[in-house]
Structures are given as structure tokens and as C-alpha cells.
Amino acid sequence: MRAELVGLLCERVPAGARAALSFGAAIDHLTGTVYGSAPLWGEETDPYDVAAELRRRRPDVTWHLVNDVTAALLDFAAVHARPGVRRVAYLTVSSGIALRTADLEQRRIPVDDMGLQGEVGHLPVTLTRPGSDALTGLPCECGARDHLASVASGPGLARTAERLGLARPAQVAEWLPAALAADDPGARRLLELFAAPVAELLRTMWCLDPHLDLIGIGGGVAEGLAGPYAAEIRRLLATPTSYADRGRDDAWLDERLVFCAPGQVDPLRGAQLAADWRPGITR
Questions:
Q1: Residue 273 CB contacts under 8 Å (≥ 6 apart), including other chains
Q2: Cβ burial, residue 242 (10 Å; 0-12/13-18/19+)
Q3: Are 79 and 98 in contact (CB under 8 A)?
Q4: pLDDT tens across 5-14, in order?
Q5: Number of neighbouring beta carbons within 10 Å of residue 148
Q6: Facing residues of 108 across strands?
Q7: Chain-centre distance of CA 132, in angstroms?
Q8: pLDDT higher than 90, residue 222
Q9: How many CA atoms lie within 13 A of 280 on its CB side?
């Protein structure tokens, strides 16, 4: 599948082009090596140097390859970051979950020695809401269990609903919006358990980085559930948890948290911006 994808890209790009690619996989942003993409090819984790293969097959093309969340972050920042914003993050809640953070003052996206940052969907999830112990052991698309994406991604939403006995996986997308509109108790409970791990992630991010001035949330699931999802995240963040976290009021959240509408963030446009940022994507 990976070789076929490279072949397709090489066939479609015009001669001598400058190609900016937004790619839905965990990528070493220092080399272009793809580590894996659970939604695209499941448990396959053998590194594949997509950038090198593209350049080998089409040396006439100038290739710029970035993760789709990196691209989305740059587009989000270009549109929403007001003057004075120091650091900005973008979180996607879709078929998977991932995060990117950029330092706008330094104009860089820091990465580790593997060229990675923010692959939070594959971190172990901590379930703290009452009744959430029923969700223990849910699988993730990467093959592991009890990851953040096991519960809080699109497939995780379907798994959570099935585990709670509320709806079959194939029915959740159609059932949940109508059930929420009708204030169905089961739907409200599902939304709470589904949104809680993301709210806890946001709480942790602001605790660890007080200069994180702006966070955008997008992706197919967050955008599809729209108002109810945003309201639940905000409700959870408003709840005090300790002396160090007394809850965030509406005014505070209005300044720092944006729920993106469908089409508002364009990873392809962001990939073009990333080509100019590449010197700043550093360790």
C-alpha cells in the first residue's frame, strides 16, 4: 500500500513542480521518514522513508512532506493567532488523535530526536470519570489497548457506545446527534465519557505550558458533533479540580480555545506554509 501511494503521487505531480504534501501519518519531520499511520495501514510500523523514495523516483520535483496535523496547525495559526500569541497548538479529533504546537516567537515547531511531536493519541489514557472503568481494555487502531484514541477518536466513540450498550458502531454517527438534541441520558453520558480524556489533555497542556496562548480543536469528529462537543469540553474545563486548577470561565476560554468549523482549517494550504517553515521545524 505504501509503495502504491508513492507511485500515485509520482504519477500526478507535473514535471519540475514544487509539491507540498500533507500526509496523515507519524512522520520524522527532520528526514521525511514515515513511522506509521494506524488509520491508513494499521499495525504496520516499519519505518518507510517516503521523502527519499519520492526524490529518488522524481528528482525533478521539489518535495515538501509534513504531517497533516502540522500542516493544519500552520493554517490555523495563520488565521487565528492574534498579535502577542506566544505558542499555539492544534488538536485533531478524527479517525485518530494528534496534536502539534508551534512557538510563534521563535517561528519553529520543536521535535524530538525522532522528528516527532504530539502523537498523543497513542499515549495511555487515564479514565477518571465515574463509570469510565467500563471502558478499560478498548483497542486502538495501532494494535494496542487503552490509548487515548481507544476512547476519544472517531472509532473510539463507536467502541465506547457499544461497550456502554447504547448503539452498534455503525449506528453511532447517525444516532448520537439526534439523541443529544433530545437530551437522551445515555447520549449525554456517552458524550461525557468520550470528551473527558480530551478535556484532561487540554488541562494538562495548560498546566505544563503557561505560554500556550491558543489551542484549536478540529477534525471530523469534533467538527461533526460541533456545538454539543464544544459545550461538553468547556463544561469539563470549567470544573475545578484542585487549588492549582480552579476551572476556566467562559471569558478565559474564549481567549484561548477555538473549536473549528468544517473547512475552516485547510491542511493543504498549511502544507504550503510548512515549506517555508521547514528550517524552523527543529529539535
A1: 71, 74, 75, 78
A2: exposed
A3: no
A4: 889 999 999 9
A5: 26
A6: 103
A7: 22
A8: yes
A9: 16
